[in-house]
Amino acid sequence: MPAQTATPPEVRASEAPSVTPAPPTATETVTPTPRPFASRVLIVSFDGLRPDAIEKAPMTNLLTLMESSAYSLTAQTVLPSTTLPAHTSMLSGLCPAKHATYWDDYVPENGIALGTDLFDSARAAGLRTVMIVGKEKLWHVTAAESLDVFIVNANDEAIGNLAEIEIQKDFGVMFVHFPTGDVLGHEWSWMGAVQMSAYRAEDRELAKMLAALDAAGLRSSTLIILTADHGGVIGGSHGGNLPEELTIPWILSGPGVIPGPLTSFVHTTDTAATASYALGLPRPAEWDGIPVLEAFGLPSPPRLPGDPCRQTR
Ligand SMILES: [Zn+2]
User: Is residue 27 part of a domain?
Assistant: First the structure.
Protein backbone atom coordinates (compact mmCIF):
# COMPACT_ATOMS: atom_id res chain seq x y z
CA MET A 1 0.00 0.00 0.00
CA PRO A 2 1.54 3.34 -0.98
CA ALA A 3 2.20 5.63 1.96
CA GLN A 4 0.74 9.08 2.15
CA THR A 5 3.53 11.29 0.89
CA ALA A 6 2.33 14.84 1.09
CA THR A 7 -0.51 17.21 1.65
CA PRO A 8 -1.27 19.77 -1.05
CA PRO A 9 0.88 22.87 -0.63
CA GLU A 10 -2.26 24.98 -0.47
CA VAL A 11 -3.35 23.33 2.76
CA ARG A 12 -1.81 25.41 5.48
CA ALA A 13 -3.21 25.90 8.92
CA SER A 14 -2.36 29.60 8.85
CA GLU A 15 -4.76 30.04 5.95
CA ALA A 16 -7.62 28.20 7.53
CA PRO A 17 -10.74 30.34 7.46
CA SER A 18 -12.38 31.58 10.59
CA VAL A 19 -14.77 29.04 12.02
CA THR A 20 -17.04 31.77 13.33
CA PRO A 21 -20.38 31.11 11.64
CA ALA A 22 -21.49 33.97 9.42
CA PRO A 23 -25.14 34.98 9.30
CA PRO A 24 -27.09 33.19 6.58
CA THR A 25 -27.51 36.43 4.63
CA ALA A 26 -23.75 36.45 3.99
CA THR A 27 -24.39 34.10 1.06
CA GLU A 28 -25.82 37.07 -0.81
CA THR A 29 -22.66 39.13 -0.58
CA VAL A 30 -19.57 38.98 -2.71
CA THR A 31 -17.30 40.14 0.10
CA PRO A 32 -14.02 38.31 -0.35
CA THR A 33 -13.57 35.66 2.27
CA PRO A 34 -10.59 33.34 2.73
CA ARG A 35 -10.57 30.48 0.32
CA PRO A 36 -11.85 27.42 2.11
CA PHE A 37 -9.24 24.84 2.83
CA ALA A 38 -9.67 21.35 4.15
CA SER A 39 -7.00 18.80 4.89
CA ARG A 40 -9.30 15.95 3.99
CA VAL A 41 -12.75 15.27 2.55
CA LEU A 42 -15.19 12.62 3.70
CA ILE A 43 -18.02 11.86 1.27
CA VAL A 44 -20.86 9.73 2.61
CA SER A 45 -23.57 8.30 0.35
CA PHE A 46 -26.74 6.84 1.80
CA ASP A 47 -27.93 4.72 -1.12
CA GLY A 48 -31.43 5.66 -2.26
CA LEU A 49 -31.95 8.39 0.35
CA ARG A 50 -34.66 10.80 -0.65
CA PRO A 51 -34.33 14.19 1.04
CA ASP A 52 -37.74 13.77 2.67
CA ALA A 53 -36.60 10.53 4.30
CA ILE A 54 -34.15 12.41 6.53
CA GLU A 55 -36.95 13.84 8.67
CA LYS A 56 -39.27 10.90 8.21
CA ALA A 57 -36.80 8.29 9.46
CA PRO A 58 -35.76 10.46 11.37
CA MET A 59 -31.99 10.63 10.94
CA THR A 60 -31.42 12.64 14.09
CA ASN A 61 -27.65 12.86 13.87
CA LEU A 62 -27.82 14.06 10.30
CA LEU A 63 -30.51 16.59 11.24
CA THR A 64 -28.25 17.92 14.00
CA LEU A 65 -25.31 18.16 11.63
CA MET A 66 -27.45 20.07 9.14
CA GLU A 67 -27.87 22.88 11.67
CA SER A 68 -24.22 23.78 11.10
CA SER A 69 -24.14 22.80 7.41
CA ALA A 70 -24.88 24.35 4.04
CA TYR A 71 -27.38 22.16 2.29
CA SER A 72 -29.69 21.61 -0.65
CA LEU A 73 -32.62 19.25 -0.41
CA THR A 74 -33.33 19.69 -4.12
CA ALA A 75 -29.97 18.59 -5.55
CA GLN A 76 -30.20 16.50 -8.72
CA THR A 77 -28.62 13.25 -9.79
CA VAL A 78 -28.10 11.90 -13.30
CA LEU A 79 -30.04 9.77 -15.71
CA PRO A 80 -30.15 6.84 -15.45
CA SER A 81 -30.88 7.39 -11.76
CA THR A 82 -29.22 4.12 -10.84
CA THR A 83 -26.47 3.33 -8.38
CA LEU A 84 -23.35 2.89 -10.49
CA PRO A 85 -23.89 5.65 -13.08
CA ALA A 86 -24.92 8.09 -10.34
CA HIS A 87 -22.01 7.35 -8.00
CA THR A 88 -19.63 7.55 -10.94
CA SER A 89 -20.89 11.05 -11.74
CA MET A 90 -20.79 12.03 -8.05
CA LEU A 91 -17.15 11.02 -7.70
CA SER A 92 -15.85 11.88 -11.17
CA GLY A 93 -17.50 15.26 -11.72
CA LEU A 94 -18.56 13.95 -15.12
CA CYS A 95 -21.91 13.43 -16.78
CA PRO A 96 -22.66 9.86 -17.91
CA ALA A 97 -22.03 10.87 -21.54
CA LYS A 98 -18.38 11.34 -20.57
CA HIS A 99 -17.75 8.57 -18.02
CA ALA A 100 -19.79 6.15 -20.19
CA THR A 101 -20.77 4.00 -17.24
CA TYR A 102 -24.43 3.37 -17.99
CA TRP A 103 -24.65 -0.17 -16.67
CA ASP A 104 -25.56 -0.95 -13.05
CA ASP A 105 -23.88 -4.28 -12.31
CA TYR A 106 -20.45 -5.62 -11.53
CA VAL A 107 -19.12 -6.46 -14.98
CA PRO A 108 -15.31 -6.63 -14.68
CA GLU A 109 -14.80 -6.92 -18.45
CA ASN A 110 -16.38 -3.46 -18.84
CA GLY A 111 -13.43 -1.93 -17.01
CA ILE A 112 -13.20 1.37 -15.21
CA ALA A 113 -15.24 4.53 -15.85
CA LEU A 114 -13.66 6.94 -18.33
CA GLY A 115 -12.15 10.25 -17.31
CA THR A 116 -10.17 11.70 -14.43
CA ASP A 117 -12.06 11.31 -11.17
CA LEU A 118 -11.59 12.74 -7.69
CA PHE A 119 -9.54 9.76 -6.51
CA ASP A 120 -7.24 9.98 -9.53
CA SER A 121 -6.36 13.59 -8.84
CA ALA A 122 -6.19 13.16 -5.05
CA ARG A 123 -3.88 10.16 -5.33
CA ALA A 124 -1.72 12.02 -7.86
CA ALA A 125 -1.35 14.78 -5.25
CA GLY A 126 -0.14 12.23 -2.70
CA LEU A 127 -3.30 12.09 -0.66
CA ARG A 128 -4.39 8.84 0.98
CA THR A 129 -7.57 7.64 -0.73
CA VAL A 130 -10.14 5.26 0.73
CA MET A 131 -13.36 3.73 -0.60
CA ILE A 132 -15.56 1.63 1.66
CA VAL A 133 -18.65 0.52 -0.24
CA GLY A 134 -21.62 -1.74 0.20
CA LYS A 135 -21.89 -2.87 -3.41
CA GLU A 136 -19.20 -4.59 -5.45
CA LYS A 137 -20.19 -2.77 -8.66
CA LEU A 138 -18.71 0.47 -7.30
CA TRP A 139 -15.36 -1.09 -8.21
CA HIS A 140 -16.00 0.44 -11.67
CA VAL A 141 -15.84 4.02 -10.35
CA THR A 142 -12.06 4.43 -10.22
CA ALA A 143 -8.83 2.65 -11.04
CA ALA A 144 -7.33 0.39 -8.37
CA GLU A 145 -4.07 2.37 -8.48
CA SER A 146 -5.96 5.52 -7.44
CA LEU A 147 -7.02 3.92 -4.16
CA ASP A 148 -4.96 3.08 -1.12
CA VAL A 149 -7.91 1.19 0.34
CA PHE A 150 -10.92 -0.39 -1.38
CA ILE A 151 -13.26 -2.44 0.77
CA VAL A 152 -16.63 -3.97 -0.11
CA ASN A 153 -18.89 -4.98 2.77
CA ALA A 154 -22.68 -5.15 2.56
CA ASN A 155 -23.29 -4.62 6.28
CA ASP A 156 -23.89 -1.02 7.37
CA GLU A 157 -22.52 -1.53 10.88
CA ALA A 158 -19.37 -3.19 9.53
CA ILE A 159 -18.98 -0.30 7.08
CA GLY A 160 -19.18 2.18 9.96
CA ASN A 161 -16.59 0.19 11.93
CA LEU A 162 -14.24 0.04 8.95
CA ALA A 163 -14.66 3.78 8.39
CA GLU A 164 -13.73 4.41 12.04
CA ILE A 165 -10.50 2.48 11.55
CA GLU A 166 -9.62 4.42 8.42
CA ILE A 167 -10.40 7.73 10.13
CA GLN A 168 -7.95 6.79 12.89
CA LYS A 169 -5.28 6.26 10.21
CA ASP A 170 -6.18 9.63 8.62
CA PHE A 171 -6.91 10.13 4.93
CA GLY A 172 -7.10 12.69 2.14
CA VAL A 173 -10.29 11.55 0.44
CA MET A 174 -12.60 8.91 1.85
CA PHE A 175 -15.86 7.73 0.32
CA VAL A 176 -18.23 5.70 2.48
CA HIS A 177 -21.32 4.10 0.96
CA PHE A 178 -24.19 2.63 2.99
CA PRO A 179 -26.31 0.23 0.87
CA THR A 180 -29.10 -1.03 3.10
CA GLY A 181 -31.70 1.72 2.78
CA ASP A 182 -31.80 1.06 -0.96
CA VAL A 183 -31.81 -2.71 -0.57
CA LEU A 184 -34.75 -2.63 1.84
CA GLY A 185 -36.54 0.01 -0.21
CA HIS A 186 -36.55 -2.40 -3.14
CA GLU A 187 -37.56 -5.29 -0.93
CA TRP A 188 -40.35 -3.54 1.00
CA SER A 189 -41.23 -0.03 -0.13
CA TRP A 190 -39.58 3.32 -0.75
CA MET A 191 -40.26 5.59 2.22
CA GLY A 192 -41.82 2.66 4.11
CA ALA A 193 -41.16 1.78 7.75
CA VAL A 194 -38.55 -0.85 6.97
CA GLN A 195 -36.53 1.50 4.80
CA MET A 196 -36.83 4.22 7.45
CA SER A 197 -35.38 1.86 10.08
CA ALA A 198 -32.40 1.23 7.78
CA TYR A 199 -31.75 4.95 7.46
CA ARG A 200 -31.96 5.34 11.24
CA ALA A 201 -29.32 2.62 11.57
CA GLU A 202 -27.12 4.30 8.95
CA ASP A 203 -27.55 7.56 10.85
CA ARG A 204 -26.06 5.85 13.91
CA GLU A 205 -23.07 4.88 11.79
CA LEU A 206 -22.73 8.52 10.75
CA ALA A 207 -22.59 9.47 14.43
CA LYS A 208 -19.81 6.93 14.95
CA MET A 209 -17.78 8.43 12.11
CA LEU A 210 -18.25 11.97 13.42
CA ALA A 211 -17.18 10.84 16.88
CA ALA A 212 -14.11 9.17 15.38
CA LEU A 213 -13.19 12.42 13.59
CA ASP A 214 -13.63 14.31 16.87
CA ALA A 215 -11.58 11.79 18.83
CA ALA A 216 -8.75 11.97 16.29
CA GLY A 217 -8.79 15.78 16.37
CA LEU A 218 -9.59 15.89 12.66
CA ARG A 219 -13.11 17.28 12.59
CA SER A 220 -12.31 20.99 12.22
CA SER A 221 -10.10 20.41 9.18
CA THR A 222 -12.39 17.91 7.46
CA LEU A 223 -14.95 18.80 4.81
CA ILE A 224 -17.88 16.37 4.97
CA ILE A 225 -20.33 15.90 2.11
CA LEU A 226 -23.44 13.82 2.84
CA THR A 227 -25.53 12.85 -0.13
CA ALA A 228 -27.21 10.03 -2.06
CA ASP A 229 -27.01 8.48 -5.51
CA HIS A 230 -30.74 8.68 -6.27
CA GLY A 231 -34.17 8.59 -4.62
CA GLY A 232 -37.05 6.29 -5.38
CA VAL A 233 -40.77 6.18 -6.06
CA ILE A 234 -43.22 5.02 -3.40
CA GLY A 235 -44.54 1.68 -4.58
CA GLY A 236 -41.92 1.60 -7.28
CA SER A 237 -38.22 1.86 -7.78
CA HIS A 238 -35.73 4.24 -9.42
CA GLY A 239 -33.78 4.67 -12.62
CA GLY A 240 -36.04 7.09 -14.45
CA ASN A 241 -36.48 10.84 -14.60
CA LEU A 242 -39.22 11.48 -12.04
CA PRO A 243 -38.43 14.15 -9.43
CA GLU A 244 -38.67 11.52 -6.67
CA GLU A 245 -35.91 9.53 -8.37
CA LEU A 246 -33.65 12.44 -9.34
CA THR A 247 -33.81 14.60 -6.22
CA ILE A 248 -31.12 13.96 -3.64
CA PRO A 249 -29.88 15.61 -0.46
CA TRP A 250 -26.54 17.45 -0.59
CA ILE A 251 -25.19 18.52 2.78
CA LEU A 252 -21.83 20.18 3.34
CA SER A 253 -20.19 20.53 6.74
CA GLY A 254 -16.73 21.71 7.64
CA PRO A 255 -14.20 24.54 7.62
CA GLY A 256 -15.37 27.73 5.98
CA VAL A 257 -18.92 26.51 5.40
CA ILE A 258 -21.68 29.03 6.00
CA PRO A 259 -24.67 27.19 7.48
CA GLY A 260 -28.08 27.39 5.87
CA PRO A 261 -30.02 26.34 2.81
CA LEU A 262 -28.30 26.86 -0.54
CA THR A 263 -30.10 28.79 -3.24
CA SER A 264 -27.79 27.54 -6.01
CA PHE A 265 -28.72 24.63 -8.21
CA VAL A 266 -26.64 21.69 -6.98
CA HIS A 267 -25.87 18.71 -9.20
CA THR A 268 -24.30 15.46 -8.09
CA THR A 269 -21.24 16.15 -10.28
CA ASP A 270 -20.61 19.16 -8.05
CA THR A 271 -19.65 16.76 -5.26
CA ALA A 272 -16.28 15.88 -6.80
CA ALA A 273 -15.75 19.49 -7.85
CA THR A 274 -16.43 20.85 -4.36
CA ALA A 275 -14.21 18.24 -2.72
CA SER A 276 -11.42 18.95 -5.19
CA TYR A 277 -11.74 22.71 -4.66
CA ALA A 278 -11.61 22.39 -0.89
CA LEU A 279 -8.46 20.28 -1.11
CA GLY A 280 -6.78 22.73 -3.46
CA LEU A 281 -6.52 20.14 -6.24
CA PRO A 282 -6.58 21.10 -9.91
CA ARG A 283 -10.00 20.79 -11.52
CA PRO A 284 -9.85 18.74 -14.74
CA ALA A 285 -11.18 20.82 -17.65
CA GLU A 286 -13.48 17.99 -18.73
CA TRP A 287 -15.48 18.08 -15.49
CA ASP A 288 -19.14 19.06 -15.73
CA GLY A 289 -19.45 19.68 -11.99
CA ILE A 290 -18.53 23.01 -10.44
CA PRO A 291 -17.62 23.76 -6.83
CA VAL A 292 -20.59 24.94 -4.78
CA LEU A 293 -18.92 28.15 -3.69
CA GLU A 294 -22.12 29.63 -2.29
CA ALA A 295 -21.57 27.27 0.64
CA PHE A 296 -18.42 29.25 1.45
CA GLY A 297 -19.98 32.66 0.86
CA LEU A 298 -18.31 33.07 -2.52
CA PRO A 299 -19.84 33.75 -5.94
CA SER A 300 -20.38 30.57 -7.93
CA PRO A 301 -18.61 30.00 -11.25
CA PRO A 302 -20.84 30.64 -14.28
CA ARG A 303 -23.04 27.78 -15.41
CA LEU A 304 -25.89 27.47 -17.87
CA PRO A 305 -29.22 27.17 -16.06
CA GLY A 306 -30.61 23.69 -15.57
CA ASP A 307 -29.11 20.24 -15.39
CA PRO A 308 -25.55 20.26 -16.78
CA CYS A 309 -25.97 16.70 -18.08
CA ARG A 310 -29.09 17.54 -20.06
CA GLN A 311 -27.87 20.64 -21.90
CA THR A 312 -28.08 20.70 -25.67
CA ARG A 313 -24.51 21.32 -26.71
ZN1 LIG B 1 -28.44 3.21 -5.44
Answer: no
Q: Is the peptide bond before 58 cis (omega within 30 degrees of 0)?
A: yes
Residue range 184-203, pLDDT digits in tens? 999 999 999 999 999 999 99
- CA neighbours within 13 Å on the CB side: how many for 227? 36
Centroid of ligand 1 to alpha carbon of 241 (angstroms):
14
Tens-place pLDDT, residues 61-70? 999 999 999 9
Looking at the structure of the chain, the number of domains it has is 1
Catalogue the E-assigned strands of 49-170. Answer: 70-76, 129-133, 149-152
Q: Which residues pair with 46 in a beta bridge?
A: 178
Distances (CA, A) of 174 to 156, 166, 224, 250: 16, 8, 10, 17
Strand partners, 174: 42, 130
Q: Give kind and range of the element (H or E) at residue 116.
A: none
Q: How far is the CA of 228 from the centre of ligand 1 (A)?
A: 8
- Rounded to two decimals, the pTM is 0.89
Please check whether residue 305 lies inside any domain of the structure: no
| CATH assignment at residue 129 | 3.40.720.10
Three-state secondary structure call for residue 61? helix
Q: Name 222's bridge partners.
A: 40
Residues around ion ligand 1, judged by CB within 5 A, are 47, 83, 182, 229
Any domain includes 15: no
Q: Which H or E run contains 98?
A: helix 96-99
Q: Which domain holds residue 276?
A: 41-299
Q: How many CB atoms lie within 10 A of CB 236?
A: 15
Q: How far is the CA of 178 from the centre of ligand 1 (A)?
A: 9
